[in-house]
Amino acid sequence: MPNPPKKILIVGPAWIGDMIMAQTLYKLIKQNNPEALIDVIAPKWTHTLLQHMPEINRAIATPLRRKKLDLKKRYRLGKELRKNSYDQAILLPNSLKSALIPFFARIKKRTGWRGEMRYGLLNDLRILNKNKYPLMIERFAALGTPKESPLPKKLPWPKLQLDQPIIDNTIAKLKLQTHQPILALCPGAEYGPAKRWPTNYFAQIALQKITDNWQVWIFGGPNDQDIAHEIQQQTNNQCTNLTGKTTLTEAIALLAKSTLVLTNDTGLMHIAAALEKKLIVLYGSSSPGFTPPLSKNATIISLNLPCSPCFERQCPLQHFKCMQDLKPEVVINAINKVL
């Protein structure tokens, strides 16, 4: 009888961009073992992304509150997962909490980077060398390979699969027109304002493309509605404001229909990259050396100031030059080159 396929439980990240980048790990596992069954346990809001990753066998929701230990719930879920007889658990978060469910599930091999005092919970503990693995996808992928084994020279990049009927139905539902080129703006950034290009700069780009007979769609979640409202005010309501009005699946579908995406370093940027869209990404407080857009169609713009990347939510020097000094003219020139 042939050996049963290896069953792996991935404890996935909670951020949209990180979950997109985690697909590199899923792809690498399937490359090395096409018969492997990969289940991912992660917050419910990330499951939409997993639905568009063919490597995933099953998504499991964590009925847990952020920043809460919820020890009893973790124990119950871990006990429930024992019936799945996983061969290995791979933990992408570095928190103590993330190691509890695989431990309670009695998974034979529990792999993760050394984090918050997890020595007794992980039995395949890795010590991260940040210089060896500068990219997040490298750190994820390394957990899917034997300890001390080298990574492949070329890692597989994320790529979301989306059926055309989903795109068509979304456009019909929202009564959108697609006969003109479409500029997608992603002006928000959940992490904080230090990652956001100024709103009036986005508005200037929007006005320029509207003059060029383009449509402009503004993307984002409910927390981005104030930013979108400012852009609408500065463009005389000539943009289509989609912030807070779409599901994540619908946002993915509409990004897939866009001609060009202009975005901060945010989760939507990683989605657009995984859809292989033409993409211009603006970096300020964060670094493309850690979480770049994984696409040959991406153009990165950064001033590379001595004070950046600071990885802070607010500019610690209070001048915000990394974004303020990145003028719209530079972005317009980049757009013209891309097109």
Question: What's the helical proportion of residues?
Answer: 25-40%
Number of strands: 12
First-residue to last-residue Cα separation: 56 Å
Question: What's the number of structural domains?
Answer: 2
Give your account of this protein's structure.
The structure is a single chain. By secondary structure, this protein is of the alpha/beta class. The chain has two domains: 7-142, Rossmann fold (3-Layer(aba) Sandwich); 164-338, Glycogen Phosphorylase B (Rossmann fold). Helix content is 33%, strand content 16%. The protein has twelve helices and twelve strands. It has helices spanning 16-32, 47-51, 71-81, 100-104, 136-142, 164-173, 199-211, 225-234, 248-257, 267-274, 321-324, 328-338; strands at residues 7-11, 37-42, 58-61, 88-91, 109-113, 124-126, 182-186, 215-218, 240-241, 260-264, 279-283, 298-302. The strands form two sheets. A six-stranded parallel beta sheet has the order 3-2-1-4-5-6. Strands 9-8-7-10-11-12 form a six-stranded parallel beta sheet, sandwiched between helices. The longest helix has 17 residues, at 16-32. The chain is globular, with a radius of gyration of 21 Å. The chain starts with 6 loop residues before the first strand and ends with a helix. The mean pLDDT is 93.
